[in-house]
């Protein structure tokens, strides 16, 4: 599992996917999220604007990432 470091209260799921390098654009993020390919805390979430906070975990393409603030 890799950490995604943020310096704000939250990051959206779409932004987190781009920051992780799993997708190259917001459009790509939108597609994989809407197709149900992304898990948030173990469950499918189809909301690109889903707010991820410290301790949340998302998974795409068998890679897991944990959100960490600061």
- How far apart are the termini? 17 Å
How many distinct beta strands?
Answer: 7
- Mean pLDDT, nearest integer? 96
Sheet/helix structural class: alpha+beta
Fourth-level CATH superfamily: RNA-binding S4 domain
* Largest sheet report: 5 strands, mixed
Strand order of the largest sheet: 1-7-6-3-4
Cα Rg? 11 Å
User: Helix share of residues?
Assistant: 10-25%
- Look up the CATH topology: Structural Genomics Hypothetical 15.5 Kd Protein In mrcA-pckA Intergenic Region, Chain A
Contiguous runs where pLDDT drops below 50 for at least 5 residues:
none
Which series of helices and strands comes N to C? Answer: EEHHEEEEE
What is the overall silhouette? globular
Walk me through this protein's architecture.
The chain is an alpha+beta fold and 70 residues long. It is built from two helices and seven strands, in the order ββααβββββ. The protein has a five-stranded mixed β-sheet with strand order 1-7-6-3-4, covered by helices on one side. A two-stranded antiparallel ribbon has the order 2-5. A hairpin with a 2-residue loop joins β3 (38-40) and β4 (43-44). α1 (13-20) crosses α2 (26-34). The longest helix has 9 residues, at 26-34. The radius of gyration is 11 Å and the shape is globular. The mean pLDDT is 96.
Based on the model shown, name its key terms:
70 residues; alpha+beta; Structural Genomics Hypothetical 15.5 Kd Protein In mrcA-pckA Intergenic Region, Chain A; five-stranded mixed beta sheet; two-stranded antiparallel sheet; 2 helices; 7 strands; 24% helix; globular
